[in-house]
């Protein structure tokens, strides 16, 4: 990328990042959270955007980035050996990709079934790399089997128990995506449901404090229902080129 284009992109990202950080801060204050002890962290979702954007975001102070495809993420990590960010896997994950993901991810947010927890556990053990932070992805759709990943709320405790029983995975909390608008489910009600699941898990594992919920269009609703982490793509990077 030539210097001029790089500078242009950098200021564009900077401006949008500032706006999103202001939105987060406002929502957090409106929820009455304490400044120092109750932060809301930001994962910038860089899927479909080039590694150069991750580099620019890191220069702008971003510490966490999210990716949803193993191959794409692995290539970016390889392009950026000196960039110090935490890589979050946020996409659906097949068991046969667990070993590969364990090679680059610092956090896997999309653990939604027992056999995936098992596969990650073996992968991290083999690499001798761990522990790996993981979140239980909860499905908030009214008809989970048609949803986009996530364990049904009823199954979340069992999955948390499984994760907590491993030596290599660190149960850090829960993650969810609001139900698809077509379902007609009120996102606020869905986020409230997620908080109930999170509270139950935290009751047993007090350090599992992360509630990862809220994206570009609904981060305020998520924060007002207890989100401690939001995942924002479009509002910072711009519209994503359509994949497939
Ligand atoms: C793409 C994606 C996001 C970011 O969505 P935006 O609407 O671009 O902010 C967040 N979470 C998950 C799981 C995603 O796949």
CATH class: Alpha Beta
Q: Work out the radius of gyration.
A: 17 Å
Give the H and E element order: HEHEHEHEHEHEHEHEH
Helix tally? Answer: 9
* Unique bound compounds: pyridoxal-5'-phosphate
Indicate the low-confidence ranges by residue numbers: none
* Main sheet: strand order: 7-6-5-4-3-2-1-8
CATH homologous superfamily designation = Alanine racemase
- CATH topology name: TIM Barrel
- Straight-line distance between termini: 26 Å
Chain oligomer state: single chain
Question: Would you kindly provide a written description of the structure presented here, covering whatever features stand out?
Answer:
The chain has one domain (3-237): Alpha-Beta Barrel (TIM Barrel), CATH 3.20.20.10. It is globular, with a radius of gyration of 17 Å. The mean pLDDT is 94. The longest helix has 28 residues, at 3-30. The chain has helices at residues 3-30, 51-59, 70-79, 98-104, 114-127, 156-164, 187-204, 219-224, 234-237; strands spanning 41-45, 64-67, 86-89, 107-111, 132-137, 169-175, 210-212, 229-232. With 244 residues, the chain is an alpha/beta fold. The protein starts with a helix and ends in a 7-residue tail after the last helix. The protein has an eight-stranded parallel β-sheet with strand order 7-6-5-4-3-2-1-8. Pyridoxal-5'-phosphate (PLP) binds at residues 45, 47, 68, 90-91, 177, 215-216, 231-235.
Keywords:
244 residues; alpha/beta; TIM Barrel; 9 helices; 43% helix; binds pyridoxal-5'-phosphate
